[in-house]
Amino acid sequence: MDSSQHLDGDSTGDFKRSVAATAEAAHTLRELFTLWVTATVDADTERRGDIILAVYEAVANATEHAYKNSAEPGTVTVHSRHRPNGALEITVTDTGTWDPSPSERFRGRGLALITALSDTHALTTGPDGTTVTMCWQPMPVVTS
């Protein structure tokens, strides 16, 4: 499959997709993101798996927590790009409300997982929502 089929028409090769913050949409987003990673990230299977899992965890957190006090689901956006230095930078953004406390006793490990899987990460919260930025050090870009 040609990787441009799931890049939303972005001529730079970035992946950018916004979906409803629902479990079904998050699953579809994971499938599309996996195709993009497979087509554009020159890394071993384990490293690709780390990237996909970390991003999905951030998406799942937004889906479950950001809009829990809203009548309707909001949106979650994933934007992934290869930086000029070869690093892979991915942001997961929502426009919901940040809640740092886990909803249940055995929950609340999402950020720890993101920390373990990414080379660096940052969390930005505010009245306009939350952004999780994850980076992986330089990786070659697959070109066709």
Strand fraction band?
25-35%
Q: Please provide the count of β strands.
A: 5
What is the share of helical residues?
25-40%
Which CATH class applies here? Alpha Beta
Q: Could you say how many structural domains there are in total?
A: 1
Spatial order of the strands forming the largest sheet: 1-2-3-5-4
Distance between the termini: 11 Å
Q: Note the overall shape.
A: globular
Write down the secondary-structure element order.
EHHEEHEE
Superfamily (CATH H level) name: Histidine kinase-like ATPase, C-terminal domain
Summarize the main sheet: 5 strands, antiparallel
Structural class, from secondary structure content? alpha+beta
On the 0 to 100 scale, the average pLDDT is 85
CATH fold-level label: Heat Shock Protein 90
Report on the structure:
InterPro entries: Anti-sigma-factor_SerPK, HATPase_C_sf, HATPase_dom. Keywords: ATP-binding, Kinase, Nucleotide-binding, Serine/threonine-protein kinase, Transferase. The chain has 144 residues and is an alpha+beta fold. It has a single domain (3-136), classed as Heat Shock Protein 90 (2-Layer Sandwich). 33% of the residues lie in helices and 25% in strands. The chain has 3 helices and 5 strands; from the N terminus they run βααββαββ. It has helices at 23-40, 45-66, 110-117, and strands spanning 15-20, 75-82, 88-94, 120-126, 129-136. It has a 5-stranded antiparallel beta sheet, with helices on one face. α2 (45-66) packs antiparallel against α3.
